[in-house]
């Protein structure tokens, strides 16, 4: 069941993994989900290295986190509550990507939000890329902190001392935003490192 959605998750993971968006090649950090209508989501399993991930490993859960279809021996992502929260609060969002991409991670340890720097990026990411305050990975508290921020209508967020969260009306949009965020975060970090005043839009 839900082969198309599982394939969307798997393909997105491999695309991100191949380009270093998860921070390591050998680890299983980060997670990806897509919404299935208004009731379910397809989400990555916990702790499976991306190089070993198959279609059957992708888990189907309802938005309360209950297992609908999970392969024996697999556990859904520890961030399942975070993903479900996004789908409950933002009805237009059908894909959710959490990465450990490098330059967004640099911003995640700075006490600063990313201001609007390029019009192309701002229209995709949101006017400001705001930081969601720190909470332990996989905790209910992290999902609650995400819930309190994503009302702003933006599609990209920094998770403090952790990584990034990208939302999409399609998986393609979420992947594009991961790329755009990395470009903007890189430019922002390099610009900050000059010590000169930054021009914003
Ligand atoms: Zn993470």
Uncertain stretches:
none
Question: What pattern of helices and strands is seen along the backbone?
Answer: HEEEEHEHHEHEEH
What is the class in the CATH system? Alpha Beta
The structure class reads alpha+beta
The domain tally reads 1
Bound molecules: zinc ion
Mean pLDDT: 96
Number of β-strand runs: 8
Largest sheet: 8 strands, mixed
How many H/I helices?
6
Q: Calculate Rg over CA atoms.
A: 16 Å
Shape: globular
CATH level 3 topology:
L-fuculose-1-phosphate Aldolase
Share of helical residues = 25-40%
Fold and architecture overview:
The protein is of the alpha+beta class. The protein has one domain (3-193): L-fuculose-1-phosphate Aldolase (3-Layer(aba) Sandwich). It is built from six helices and eight strands; from the N terminus they run H-E-E-E-E-H-E-H-H-E-H-E-E-H. It has helices at residues 3-18, 80-89, 102-108, 119-125, 140-149, 171-193; strands at 31-36, 40-43, 59-62, 67-69, 95-99, 131-132, 156-159, 163-168. Strand 7 (156-159) and strand 8 form a beta hairpin. It is globular, with a radius of gyration of 16 Å. The model has no long low-confidence stretch (mean pLDDT 96). The structure holds zinc ion. Zinc ion (ZN) is lined by residues 29-30, 98, 100, 137, 162-163.
Summarize the structure.
This protein is of the alpha+beta class. The protein is built from 6 helices and 8 strands; from the N terminus they run αββββαβααβαββα. An 8-stranded mixed sheet has the order 4-3-2-1-5-8-7-6, sandwiched between helices.
